[in-house]
Amino acid sequence: MVAAPAAEGSPLRVREVSKSFPNQDNAAARTHAIDRISLDVGASELISFLGPSGCGKSTLLRLITGLDAPDSGELWVGAEPITAPSAERGLVFQDPNLFPWLTVRGNIQAGLVARGVLHEKRGEVDEFMRLVGLESFANAFPHHLSGGMAQRVALARALINHPKVLLLDEPLGALDAFTRMRMQDEVLRLWQARRTTMLLVTHDIDEAIYMSDRIVLMTPRPGRIERILTVELARPRQRNSPEFLRLRGDILELLHFAGAEEKAEGGRRKAED
Ligand code: ADP
Question: N or C, fewer C-beta in 10 Å, the chain?
Answer without folding.
Answer: C
